[in-house]
Every structure is written in structure tokens, then in C-alpha cells.
Amino acid sequence: MRNVQAKVSVTTLDDSSAIPDSELELKSHRIWLSNVVVRKPKEKRKWHVNGVRRLIVVGMVHGLAMFAPLTFNWAALWVALVLYLLTGMLGVTLSFHRNLTHRSFQLAKWLEYLLAYFGSLALQGDPIGWVRTHRYHHKYTDTKRDPHSPLEGFWYSHISWIFDATALAEKRCESCIVKDLKGQKFYKFMRSTYLLHHFALGLLLYALGGFPYVVWGMGVRTTCVYHATFLVNSVCHVWGNHAWKTGDLSKNNWWVALLTMGEGWHNNHHAFEYSARHGLEWWQVDITWYIIKLLEALGLASDVKVPTLAQKQRLSFKL
What we know:
By secondary structure, the chain is mainly alpha-helical. Helix content is 53%, strand content 4%.
């Protein structure tokens, strides 16, 4: 495993305007059990109305989940599990991430839109916004323009970055990076009507099972999907195995992979972001990859990309 030490020592996004460490009031700490050192200026967050709105929404979701012990029943639990798989694993992992962001395979158009709709119900943003942020993450991984690097702090990379709307707007300013999605009517429709679909789902759950269905189907399920996704941004850039020469902090983490249907093989992914398969070794469990292969066998997925032996050899530490 390669040890990586990194630091942030400037306040601006422009490297040419970097201020020497000696001229800044810095706070510094090493993230527990890692070689990642966070060093950044002590400054107050500039709150924006969008950041406040996100904080309220995320807070309400977590607050709703706290009613889980008082509303438990087996039917509500199954609702949460089914929606977790549909919205988080198929919607975010397979659709938003591997299909829409990286185009690592193609889906029949009706299925692409259906799975993207499921992803929208994960309450992590509409497809255009989610893909835009993640493409920026890969373009500027673990630099000052990365939307959610642990160089800004572990909790910043895990969840706090969502509320930093001002910094996020500065870091992902090129709208052309999602031109392929912005040109499709379905994705523009989802952007303009985004919150309505969540209200509709909440009403449907209430009609089917009352408050327990809302608590488990909206609160518990969404909270679990949130943190499963966020673990990839935080844990998988701090703890795990660095298997490939990617030049960033991305790590392979087996237990995150189990929670996220394969997304925890994150260093594999950063090495070969175009690959539909993240678990590149036979023992690296990647359930999303198995689903993609099933869709391919059924004629619903095509142009499935994986790295060649030559591409692996170029990034291998073994050579």
C-alpha cells in the first residue's frame, strides 16, 4: 500500500495566487490512522441560501429517521430495503455514477431514464447536478478544485461540502461538462420538477402505510443511502489500499464496497474511470458489475467497457 501525504495551504482556487504557509493562520491535523494531513486557513464558512436549504432538507431527513424505533414494523422495513436498492444502488451507483457520469456502458433509452429517475429519488440532486459534481471530482481529484476532498477535512469530504454552496459553485463553474445531459428533455424536466417527485413519493408512502412507511421509506432509507454514498467520498480517500498509480488519495476499501454494491473499489475506479467494472480482481465483490453483465446478456446494456491488460500494466506498481 502506498502512503500518500497531502496538504491544503491556500485560500483561493487559483494555484498562481498561492499564499505561503508562513503568511496564513493555519490549522493542521492528521486524519486518524492515515497519512492524510489537513492544513488549511482558519476561516468562517460563507453561507449561501442554497446551502441553508440543503442543511434544512438533510436535517429533516435525519430527524425523520429518528422516529424509526417508534414506528418499526416488518412491512416498513421491507419498503426501506426495496427503496434503498432502487434509489441508492440501481439509481445512484449503476445509473448516476457508472452509466451517466462515466458512460462505461450504454442502456436501452427507456431503462436509462427509468434508473435515472430512481436515482433522482435518492435526494442527492437531479441527474444533471449529480453528474456535474462527480465529473469535477474526477477532473480535479484531491486538489483545491475538488468538490469534496478530505484535504479540506474528513467531515467536509463526507457531508459538510454539500452545504458549502458558495465554494461548490466556484469549483464546478464549467456547465459544458454536462452538455450531453443538458441536451435531453428528460433530464431538463427532472431538473425543473425535482422536488415534486419527492413530495409525490412521500404522499404515496403515506397512503400505502401511514407514518411508519414515511419514516422508513423516506427517513431511514434516504439517510442510509446518503451515508453509503458519502463513505466513498470520505473513507475511500483516506483508508484502504492504494493499488494503482493514480496520483491521488483514492483507496480500495472492501467494507465500503460491500455497503455500496462495489463502489468501494475506489482506487480501481480512479485508475480506470471508464470501466463498468470496479472490482477488478475475482475476489473483489462488485454486485453492480454483475447486474450490468446480466443486463448485457439480456440485450439491455451494450458497449460495456473494462480496462485492457496493457492499460493495467501502465498503472501497475508491480512494474
